[in-house]
UniProtKB/TrEMBL annotation:
Residue ranges, annotated region (Disordered): 1-23
Compositional bias (Polar residues): 1-18
Top-rank lineage group of the source organism: Bacteria
Stored Pfam families: TfoX_C (PF04994)
Protein name: TfoX/Sxy family protein
Residue ranges annotated for the TfoX C-terminal domain, each copy included: 33-103
Gene3D superfamilies from the UniProt entry: 5' to 3' exonuclease, C-terminal subdomain
Amino acid sequence: MSFSLSYSRMMSEGSRTPGQLHPGGTINDFTPLKGLKNIVPTIAQQLAEVGIVTVRDLKSVGVVNTYKRLKAQNPAITIPICYYLYALQGALEGVHWDDLSPEVARLWAETSLTNLNGDP
């Protein structure tokens, strides 16, 4: 199933409460992304559609290449680059995307300004 929900709908699905890493407690490489901070059901479904379902999957593919896979899977849909980069990085760090360090936030902001439309 391809995703077609709008950005506003994804945002309305909410995020985990501050300090809540995962319903099961700690995060390891085998932790499913679904339910981690910033990974609302819509994003979890999108990630699963491109074969990324665990923390290990996301780490091995990388945040930028994960975005590229999502974009390649759904070329006609606008995918908010900066939000996805922040959300995926925050999920790996166990923090809300808005709580990333200023250095990481700046890196993703700069990355989102470059052309990320290449092949994954």
